[in-house]
Amino acid sequence: MVRRRAIPRFDSEDEERAFWQTHEATDFIAPSQFRPAQFPRLRPSVKTISIRLPESLVHSLQVMAHKRDVSYQSLVKLLLTEAIEREHERGPGAAAQA
To answer: Domains of the chain: which residue ranges?
Structure first.
């Protein structure tokens, strides 16, 4: 069995970052000790945008969202995601041919 070195203590994140840029984790931890990381509270980053829509379209979205028991912003995200997935399935150049 290979003897592993102890991970030093760091006074700051910058010091730790600099250390790991020049050292391999396998010098300190055996790969058999590696465990998958879990981040249960990790949320995808979001960007707020502003978009102008006709009032009638917003009203239609609100009605559809109410029927599905979701907010209309969530419904817009869902509909955009579905449309983008369909475009990806159609392949490159499909929009120009339509």
So the answer is: 55-93
Written as tens digits, the pLDDT of the chain (98 aa) is: 567 788 999 999 999 999 999 999 888 888 888 888 888 888 888 889 999 999 999 999 999 999 999 999 999 999 999 999 999 998 877 656 65
pTM: 0.50
Please state, as a whole number, how many other Cβ atoms lie within 10 Å of the Cβ of residue 26: 11
**What region, left, alpha or beta, does residue 8 occupy, with left being phi > 0 and alpha being psi -120 to 50 degrees?**
beta
Neighbours of 3 (CB within 10 A): 4
Q: CA–CA separation, 52 vs 63, rounded Å?
A: 18
